[in-house]
Amino acid sequence: MGKPEVPSPQRIVDSIQTPDPWRLSKLLAATRILAREFYARPTVEVAQALLGCVIRRGATAGMIVETEAYIGQGDRAAHFWRGMTPRTEVIFGPPGHAYVYFIYGMHDCFNVVTEADGVPGAVLIRAVEPLTGMAEMSRRRYGIGVTKKSARGLTNGPAKLADALAITRADNGCRLDRGPLTIRAWREPRQFEIGVTRRIGITHCADLPLRFVWKGNPFLSKPFPND
DNA sequence: CCGCGGATCTTCT
DNA sequence: GAAGATCCGCGGA
After folding, report:
1. Which nt has its C1' nearest the CA of A84?
2. Which pLDDT tens digit goes with each residue over A61-106?
3. How far is the CA of A127 from the C1' of C10 (A)?
4. A213 half-sphere exposure, CB direction, 13 A CA radius
5. What Å value separates CA A216 and C1' B3?
6. Confidence of residue A119 (pLDDT cuts 50, 70, 90)
7. Positions 75-134 in A, CB within 7 angstroms of strand C
8. CA angle A190, A195, A201 (to 5 degrees)
9. What are the DSSP calls for A165-220, one per residue?
10. What are A121-146's pLDDT values in tens digits?
């Protein structure tokens, strides 16, 4: 005669299991905000160094597991390959700022600006592993915190994670070392292998090895071959 | 699991 | 005026 078990929203969503559930306070204590200098390096270097880092917005956070580099030298897939336009202005600005663009009439995608001030370069964040606030992320994406959908689908794509972390064009040009949207590194760095592949969803320069993934992580937008 | 088509609108030619 | 750094649902294996 027990009452039917009705798990709380947080329970249901979390029970879909991320391997590593974090409380926000604990997460903040275990990480520190990346300084602007971190981003003032070659784009490919930053793209790899960002793997394992944590994007935080309010009570929601996810760990970066997949990135793509968009570089200045003859990269026709980069939005800025022809030079500066109103849209790509922030990519030519100081490093450590957000570049958020709108695509296919409905999605926002989140990039980090790299290289020295005046030199274009950006890293597209393609997937994160949810760490905290999954019910809230689920509400942002599905309009409901209780869902039977797999946790994998919550943030395993550039537009999905932007949605889950409420990143929009309003964040375009904002700095990432302060303010409501920040990127943090673990004080005790995680150990993992980095896989390299061609970038996804582009037509030009599709062969360049500029996509970087946390090898074997289940939250990739597309699995690493042989995983 | 995989491939296909539709949705939808900003940006630059 | 066309393409685009995507996602989702659907149908089939």
Report:
1. B12
2. 999 999 999 998 889 999 999 999 999 999 999 999 999 999 999 9
3. 25
4. 24
5. 24
6. very high
7. 77-80, 99, 101, 103-107, 109, 111, 122, 124
8. 120
9. TT--GGGTT-BSSSSSEEEEEESS----PEEEE--SS-STTTTS--EEEETT-TT-
10. 999 999 999 999 999 999 999 998 87
**Residue A91, nucleotide of least CA–C1' distance:** C5
Q: Which protein residues have Cβ within 7 A of any strand B atom?
A: A 82, 85-88, 102, 104-106
Amino acid letter for position A100:
V
Across A111-116, average pLDDT: 98
The confidence score (pLDDT) of residue A3 equals 37
CA distances from A65 to A51, A68, A91, A214 (A): 5, 11, 22, 5
